Amino acid sequence: MEALQALGLTPAAEALLVRLMQHPETSPTDQDPVDELLTLGLVERIDGALVVRPPRLAMDALAERHTKQAALARESADLLTELWKSAAGRQDYLEILPTYAASQAVLNSVQKDAQEHVRAMTMGNLAARELKIVEGMFDALDRGVRYDVIYGAHVLQDGNALHMVQSCIEAGEQARVFPHVPLNITIVDDRWALVGARAEVRRGPEFVALVVHDSPLLRGLERIFEALWRIAVPITSGTELNDVTAGPSLDAKRLLTYLSAGLTDESIAREFGVSERTIARRIGRLQEALGAQTRFQLGVQASRQGWL
Questions:
Q1: Residue 186 bridge partners (DSSP)
Q2: Which among 245, 186, 247 is positioned nearest to 212, based on CA atoms?
Q3: What is the CA 190 to chain-centroid distance, rounded?
Q4: How confident is the model at residue 147 (pLDDT cuts 50, 70, 90)?
Q5: Got the DSSP string for 211-232?
Q6: Strands 174-178, 233-235: parallel, antiparallel or unpaired by DSSP?
Q7: 16-61: pLDDT as tens digits
């Protein structure tokens, strides 16, 4: 069935699903298609045997995830197209910074120049590949400047970096983490932005930095930041190392799979052999870990983190 394969089901898993429907006593020898069907919630193990579940709920949930991914791809295409059109036109709103020291000087000036709102996403220091608090940030927070910052996932794997981020949070910064931050961007009051990136070339590390003034390109950078901010995971003063990047336990993956398949709390509780209250508490902890306000958001965030 081409429709199933279009939704990501491999031919081997599809063949096994059909075989199980026609011959429930089938005992597959290849574990990969079995794992695929279990992950999608199309089958379950009961007393060691594989039993086909009603497929509509699972396939509807899978189709919905693909719909969301397609919508995100279209949104990204629109953003990138806007950036391309902007870069292809007039460029008098761009300033190329000749050295890394020049880019650092501009970054340090942000804290004094900012009046209301700073949005930033950071890979860390592009020269030393480490996280540093920029000069004057705490003073800016004290005078009421709002800071929204997206960090790369490395901050959850480095105790010193996480401690540094949490000290900024305690001072008033709003912080989130995203697995693959592609470059450093700092946007100041919707007026200008500093963009920096690092690349490894044969002659060593190469730095590229520029200032983007008020322009369609600046608007595009703002929209990119907001898109990542919506799907990034909040960091709090209580976040521990690897809270997000370590992923869920096997039970949590199973719970997320049941939720994505549309099972009720009562049905999930029966599957786990626990009370509905226990299931509700586990779902609440997952929502907290992924910064999800609703179960729908939980499914989206879990999918984006690769947990489903």
A1: 120, 194
A2: 186
A3: 24
A4: very high
A5: EEESSHHHHHHHHHHHHHHHHS
A6: antiparallel
A7: 888 888 888 888 888 888 888 887 778 888 888 888 887 777 777 7
